[in-house]
Amino acid sequence: MKDMHTFSIIMPAYNQADHLEEAVSSVIGQSFSDWELIIVNDGSTDNTPEIIEAFSRQDSRIRAFHQTNRGVSSARNHAIAMAKAPWLCYLDSDDIWFKDTLKSYNDYIEKNNQAKFIYGYRHRLRDGKITRQKGKHQKIPGGLKELFQESFLSPIRVCHLRELVEIIGGFDENLPNTGSEDYDFFLRMSLHVKFEPIGVATGLRRRHGKNITEETGYSKMIEAAVLLRFIEQYDCRSLISVQDVNRRLGRAFYKAGREYFKGRFYRQCVEAITMGQPYKMTFKGQMLKQISRLLFPFSLHDKNPSPFPLAPYCTGIQDSELSNLAKNS
Q: Are residues 178 and 221 in the same domain?
């Protein structure tokens, strides 16, 4: 095995024995073969470790590592630390790449040698059925402004230079595993690069009962917390208009309230909508809040704690500061 490949593929794995072989096989079957696959078993209790070790014995490009269960961000950071290639790609252990994904990345890089971060889009796989997704933001490069308004990136569709991680640091291991750890990672990266679309579908995002990134009221509240922390830590007031900040935060809290309402968590719905009021309140939000108040006697309670007060996710932000920001819109 040569010391340096073009791509290092980062794959965290936790209790994915049912899907892991298909995920790894989609890497082995790539038409572009200059890669290494780094799999980190995050304390699995099924036979995931045995499957990983078997693959590493069969193909010298596959490297297996094991750790106690510390979450997907820790597993990704572990894999990144072991990576040797200049370019990093990501594939979760329950997803599938198309056979030309790495070739598509390599073709774009060869034609655009200034590129540092490239991305495509993905389709959805559920119960054996593929749902084709339209590729969002696939026409022109985007950056902080576009990503702040919408979380349109996910690991299965991105490829970037390893040096960017050295600049921004890794995935935040303190954030809950809701998908917002990816959003936080890419938001920080947006301060340093443009995201260049390749206009190609890279693979299939599998949806199943064990997904940790299902949209819930809790996951949307974490997303709002990530946005607030990002604004405060990187002084984004000079990069994004106050109006855009308010619209985005209002939308984030409204979506959290809507997901809580769907789950019959009416009290948390009111909490989320109320927190969004200083930024932007729509008629739909007001109605959702009032209906939820009427349904309080039938409310369930989400076992996940609210991320607000914001610590440890958004330390240093004062309510008065947020109110003043909203008033300036």
A: no
Alpha helices in the chain (DSSP H): 20-28, 48-58, 72-82, 101-111, 144-149, 163-168, 180-189, 217-233, 242-262, 266-276, 283-294, 319-327
| In the predicted structure, residue 317 carries a pLDDT above the cut 90 | no
- Does a structural domain hold residue 212? no
As a whole number, the mean pLDDT across the chain is 89
Instruction: Give whole-number Cα distances, 216 to 77, 136, 284, 301, in Å.
Output: 25, 22, 18, 13
Please give the torsion angle defined by the CA atoms of residues 37, 42, 43 and 44, in that order, rounded to the nearest 10 degrees: -70
Residue type, 34: D
Out of 151, 173, 207, pick the residue that ends a domain: 207
Q: Are residues 125 and 233 in the same domain?
A: no
CATH label of the domain that carries residue 64: 3.90.550.10
Banded pLDDT at 83 (limits 50, 70, 90): very high
Q: What angle (nearest 5°) sits at the alpha carbon of residue 311, between those of residues 307 and 312?
A: 95
**Domain extent for 225:** 217-327
